[in-house]
């Protein structure tokens, strides 16, 4: 199993990350589509070749083709939106927030999967990318859709752990000269 491959690749100093990764997959309260879509979208957001490859391999066996595409689409559109909306927010001049973004985001309106799942994946990617404005927006949409805070927290936890796995493995590869 590819997630087991990732766990096995983590060094001893990252034991907590390894244990957290294992528990994400085995004790999740999320349904399989929401869980594996979140893992896949977060893997893409880390930009780690190893993490993307391993999680994609396992997610492909769980997700429908539409869900696999939508999770990757969430990572793609949020890679753009998180930079834009985080920048507009950090500039601090509300005149920028009033301007139209002029960015195509049609996948958000028609992701090909349940809207709440897509929003969930966007929220998790926004956590990795550090966009407060997007986190607030997607959390509000999810709450309005009836998603409990505990599930939203789990999505953020998945983002944190997948990001940590990528950071550790990329730093190990850099130290090994790979």
- Derived from helix and strand composition plus strand pairing, the structural class reads mainly alpha
Number of helices: 10
State the separation between the terminal residues, measured CA to CA.
23 Å
Kindly identify the CATH topology.
AhpD-like
Largest sheet features: none
Query: Portion of residues in helices?
Result: over 70%
Question: Which superfamily, in CATH terms, is the homologous superfamily?
Answer: AhpD-like
- CATH class call: Mainly Alpha
Poorly predicted segments: none
Mean pLDDT: 95
Radius of gyration: 16 Å
The tally of structural domains comes to 1
Shape: globular
Q: What is the helix/strand order? A: HHHHHHHHHH
Please report the total strand number as a whole number: 0
**Could you tell me the strand content as a percent range?**
under 5%
Textual characterization of the structure:
It is built from ten helices and no strands. The longest helix has 27 residues. With 178 residues, the chain is mostly helical. 40% of the residues are buried.
SSE inventory with pairings:
Layout: H1 2-9, H2 15-26, H3 32-46, H4 49-60, H5 65-91, H6 94-98, H7 106-109, H8 115-129, H9 132-144, H10 149-175
Helix pairs in contact: 1-2, 1-4, 2-10, 3-4, 3-5, 3-8, 3-10, 5-8, 8-9, 8-10
Question: Which features would summarize this protein structure in a list?
Answer:
178 residues; 0% strand; AhpD-like; mainly alpha
